[in-house]
Amino acid sequence: MRIDIITVSPGLLQSPFEHSILKRAINKGLVEVHFHDLRKYAINKYGKIDDYQFGGGAGMVLMIEPIDKCISELQSERTYDEILYMTPDAPVLNQAIANNLSLKQNIIILTGHYKGVDQRVRDKFVTKEISIGDYVLSGGELAAAVVCDAVIRLIPGVIGDETSALTDSFQDNLLSPPVYTRPAVYDGMEVPKILLSGNFPKIDEWRAEKAYEHTKNIRPDLLED
Ligand code: ADE
């Protein structure tokens, strides 16, 4: 998979890709991530990429021309399966969206800033808009990093034990059951006996029950679907 991220703040985005699972995925050649500084495509020598909104109102809007130049350059080199735009006024990211994106070859992620992008960018280029939650971030960069993490860890070979990504919370609309490790007793607190029993069918049953209970208590909305 190849991911091209268009941003006005490349520095804000790089660090998550230099650690842990994302770094390993890149080093193993399972994913390539490229950052494109929108200012390189500015409309003048002063680096202009945004302007006031028509109709008045506070906040700057990213202009279509620099974004068009950047996307067109990328599209002249390869075909993209999806052009994502990170914005709070969009459907919220979930596991189904992450699963779907993990099957794509080439993706562009456009991150907004200030008041966002000229609507014509969304109309002309964007194929999928994603929010990471009902709150407003200062820009789409951190949201793009969240999407990349959720997607890249699903690519076969990225996580050592592949079953582990498949048993994550949300893969089956249920939250994960509780997990325990050594010691079996800590400060009088005991690990549930069933987990020490070696009876794996019973352990699976216990986990399914706990996952259901936990989901019912914390996120009953997930059980409605
Ligand atoms: N940009 C600003 N806030 C955002 C959010 N909640 N999700 C995605 N992109 C954003």
From TrEMBL:
One of its GO terms (molecular function) is tRNA (guanine(37)-N1)-methyltransferase activity. S-adenosyl-L-methionine binds at G112, I132, G133, D134, Y135, V136, L137. SUPFAM superfamilies: alpha/beta knot. It comes from the Bacteria. It holds the Pfam family tRNA_m1G_MT. It is an enzyme of class 2 (transferase). This is tRNA (guanine-N(1)-)-methyltransferase. The lineage of its organism: Bacteria, Pseudomonadati, Bacteroidota, Flavobacteriia, Flavobacteriales. The gene is trmD.
